[in-house]
Write a structure and sequence with these properties.
The chain is mainly α and 84 residues long. It has one domain. 45% of the residues lie in helices and 0% in strands. The protein is built from 4 helices and no strands. The chain is globular, with a radius of gyration of 14 Å. The structure holds zinc ion (ZN). Zinc ion binds next to loops.
């Protein structure tokens, strides 16, 4: 998004702690720890380990998070209904 000049900063839109790069999202963004654990098997991934992950898992992880980032950019608030 920063490279497209759609926002003023390159800070991660999810954690606002460091630059939002694919490697940050895949390996260490704290806002994605639960999804990373569920989809990739670890809360934090070392960059050298990320190279060994199956491409389909990484693509699924990025696709799921792309939806989250798109909703964040559009200002959509996601409400979850409580199951009773
Ligand atoms: Zn982040």
């Amino acid at each position: 998004m920063f490279n497209l000049k759609l926002q003023d900063t390159d800070l991660c839109r999810l954690c606002k702690e460091t630059a939002e790069t694919p490697l940050h999202l895949i390996c260490s963004c704290p806002a994605l720890m639960h999804k990373r654990s569920t989809l990739l098997g670890k809360y934090i991934i070392q960059p050298e380990y990320a190279k060994l992950l199956p491409a389909r898992k990484v693509l699924l992880f990025l696709a799921v998070n792309q939806c989250l980032l798109r909703d964040l950019d559009s200002g959509v608030t996601i409400y979850r209904s409580r199951s009773t």
